[in-house]
Amino acid sequence: xxxxILSTIAGASAVCACSTPAAALPDPTIxxxxxxxxxxxxLAGGCFxxxxxxxxxxxxxTRVVAGYAGGNADTARYELVGSxxxxxxxxxxxxxDPARIRYGQLLKVFFSVAHDPTQLNRQGPDSGTxxxxxxxxxxxxxxxxxxxxxxxxxxxxxxxxxxxTQVAPLTGFYDAEAHHQDYLAHHPNQPYIVVNDAPKIEHxxxxxxxxYVSAPVGQ
Length: 219
Hints:
Strand order of the largest sheet: 7-6-1-3-2-8
CATH topology: Peptide Methionine Sulfoxide Reductase, Chain A
Order of helices and strands: HEHEHEHEEEHEEHH
CATH superfamily: Peptide methionine sulphoxide reductase MsrA
Oligomer: single chain
CATH architecture: 2-Layer Sandwich
Number of domains: 1
């Protein structure tokens, strides 16, 4: 169902019960030194409108692009990805300054407030493999840090349910259509945004104030 229709009809009740951390998430014990890190991260966690909105408020992030990852170039179109049959996940490509924020800190935001990593092939009112939780690593160092952080969080039992986040190599990232870029900023009063996405930014401000910036990048 169309997101706008779903959230307008059901309002807040459209949001399914989410698994919230039992305590504040710890910093990653393994991270990548600034001199050795790539400056791009690709993450998927449900609707890319909210992911885009959250990471544009993160310190050290210089650009966020909504798009598709996990499938082929010829199926990287919204109407096809929405079928759940393309292998793509709605994703964001985050460009960041390693001198200001490390890759592991981006993962902390991802797991803390950007989405619920315990929901399999869904987020809130959206269901299908295109809404799966995924980390698309660009090199071996990102893979190492992602797997280590998931293991760290699982061992600490910070979520009441197991983390189901996929860790997979990035084989391609394809920008989403222009009207999906900066969607949250352009439609702050749209019901889906109000119910599902705007609260994530407020949670970032409250839970991770050292990583939060009030003025979103690109605005």
